[in-house]
Amino acid sequence: MLVLQLQFLLVPFLISIMGTAQYTMQDAALMNYIDRRFLSLEKRLEKCNQDILDYVEEFRDFSKMVLSRLAGLNNYKAEVKSEVDNLLTRIERAQRDIDYFGSITDSNTCVEVHEDLVKQQLFEEAEEKKKLKLMLNASCDHMLAGIKSLKIVKKTGDKHGSWMKDPGKKHAKIYLLNGSVNNVILEFANLLTFMESNHTLRARRVTLPFPWEGTGHVIYQGFLFYHRYGSLNEIIKFNIQKRNVTDQMLLPGAGRIPAYQLSPSTKIDLAIDEQGLWAIHAEPETGGNIVITKINHLTMAVEHTWDTSCNSKDAEAAFMVCNILYVVYNFPSGGTSRIQCVYDVLGAVNTYEIPVLHFPKRQGSHSTIHYNPKEKQLFAWGDGSQIVYKLHTKQKA
């Protein structure tokens, strides 16, 4: 009886031990499986990292190859450009030779044709002058006779900059454009506000969407006209009150060399006179001589262009007064500025008889000189100083 009771007790115990052993074996198998999976994931991650390193190395090799080929292309481009330049030189020489041989083999018939051509050319030039007089106000009959005095209004800002009034508006606002590259205009209520010591606190700041280049910008009838920084010859028309760009244009031939040798940051110098908006620049094709262009400020279209005899060498600035260009020259180290080249677009003035005009009582240089036709004064920027020059004018002869 006792044996039966012990058997009855041992059977559940043994079953419990066997069940526990079975569970332990299952757990061990599960852990072994999980361990194998982790090892597999680690191997895949290692392979992925190695693939990434291989890709990075391949990309570096590819970048080096591309840069090397680009350098080769640049060299090839320079060689092609040199060959094209040489070809153009040879073509120009051949053209001159053809012109020369044509001139020495000229016949009487050719002379008669040439005379007809001369007559036709003179007729066309006379008609062109009539059109120009109609386009430009012929009643603008005064010219510069001298610079009477100067007034240094303030000294603020960088060595280069410009300041001005709007001759097309009745208000007395002053505009300051500091630096040869910037995109912020300071607008002052009047000259007294500008002359205050803490003037920048009283100024209205106008931020442009594109910065300007040089100091040759002008403000006329509520619009700022300026050469866009980074462009060859793009002129922007910006509405100051609405703060948006209303128009733009490309000025043919401009922007490749400075308008004035002593003001290298200014490639295009815009000017205002009694006739409206002008552009002043220099071109390599003219041997560095200054070119002036009349621009319609409403449509931003070129109306006419003149090649002048005024050279940009040793020039520091220029301005327009009543259809006449006045070019200001100086010494590279600075000195007394002087006007010694004048060009009348209508040919009504014998500019060779005009004496050299000196700027009074000042040694230095100008980065900007702009004429204000409303006040008959020059607004200049000289070595960080804002200057006003009063003018003496006379009737054109």
UniProtKB/TrEMBL annotation:
Which InterPro entries does the entry link to? Olfac-like_dom, Olfactomedin-like_domain
Q: SMART domains recorded for this chain?
A: OLF (SM00284)
Residues passing through the membrane, by range = none
Q: Which UniProt keywords apply?
A: Disulfide bond, Secreted, Signal
Where in the chain are disulfide-linked cysteines found? C140-C322
Instruction: Name any one Pfam family assigned in the record.
Output: OLF
Q: GO annotations under biological process?
A: signal transduction
Q: Name one GO cellular component term.
A: extracellular space
Specify the domain of life of the species encoding this protein: Eukaryota
Signal peptide start-end: 1-21
The segment(s) forming the Olfactomedin-like domain are 139-395
Where is it localised? Answer: Secreted
Q: What is this protein called?
A: OLFL1 protein
UniProt organism field: Aegotheles bennettii
Q: Which gene encodes it?
A: Olfml1
